[in-house]
Design a protein that fits this description.
mainly alpha, two-stranded antiparallel ribbon, 4 helices
Amino acid sequence: MSNQPTPQETTVLFRTTRIVWYVFYVVEALLAFRFILKLLSANSGAGFTEFIYSVSAIPLAPFRFVFSNNAIGSNVFEWSTLLAMLVYWVLVWGIIKLVLMTRTVDTYRAKDALEEQDSV
C-alpha cells in the first residue's frame, strides 16, 4: 500500500491553505490601508476612511495599546498596526505549517527527515 496522499487529501490541503492565505491577505490589506490612512492624516469623516477604521479595529484590538503612537502634526505612525500585521503573518505561517504536517508521508521520506533532524 502506498503512503502517497490521495487526490482528495491533496485537494483538501490545497483549499485549506488557500482559504487561510486569502483571509490573511484581506486582514493585511485592511491593516495596511489603516496604517497608510493614519500616516497620511486622512479625513476620518470620509466614508472610505471611516469604513477602513471601523473594520480594521477588530483585528487591531489585541494590539491597540502595546505601543504609543507617534504623531507629527495630524499624521500618526501607528506602531500597533505594524505589530498586528507581523503577528498575524507569523500566526498564519504557523497554521499553514500545521496544516501541511497532516499530509501523508511515505516511510522513506519520514526516515530521511528524522535522520536529518538527529544530525543537527
